[in-house]
Design brief:
- The protein is an alpha+beta fold.
- The protein has eight helices and six strands; from the N terminus they run ααββααααββαββα.
- The protein has a four-stranded antiparallel β-sheet with strand order 3-4-6-5, with helices on one face. It has a two-stranded antiparallel ribbon with strand order 1-2.
- The chain is elongated, with a radius of gyration of 24 Å.
- The termini are far apart.
Amino acid sequence: GKCSMPLEYCEYGPDFETHCVPWMKKNHPDVLKQILKEIKGGGGNADEDGEAEGPAKPTEPWTVEERLTAFYEMYQPDKVSDIPNLLSKYAGKEDKLFMALTKKYGPEPEDPYYAESDEEGDLEDDMENLNISGKNKRGAKAKTTKQVETRVVIQKTVRNKKKATTIIVGMDTVPGVKLKDASKAFSKRFAGSSSVKDGPKGKEIIIQGDHMEDVAEMIVSKFKVDG
């Protein structure tokens, strides 16, 4: 290395940060990345500047077993070993099982797949507070509303023949409704994860479980959408 020591020992030298890091960044970035990762204790990925990145977001939601395991690890860790028996007993009735568990113990832990980053969560609010020119809205004159036909579609998808999710499209056409607030309301009502994502037909609210009929009733009663 720049300090005349072998690359794998550079981190132990007195000039590691001032001499070795800039030199390795230019000549051996892969080696530097590995060294920085080890310095950080192996947690997550490290970039070339030594800042650790968070864990990668999962590509798929939890399975029913993973979802149940996370729930029991939070509320009843001593009963995690009972999960296989529960899955067998409530096969095909998993939604009812989770409804009963959340009623007894509390809300489910959030599935990382559905977790919303701070930037995503704040984007909608930021856009609503800005006009096209980028200036803050001031007074009634700055507020303009485009009339959009209200049309909400509810669908159910099933993965791996067992795992169901309820998808709501069109809540952004309901006057006065913010998708983030609607998603939280559904999550609270059905005691499970709910998130907002971009779909082929626009913004979607995705809820774990088969809740089509209950969602339809809630949209009519709470959000005042005509059935």
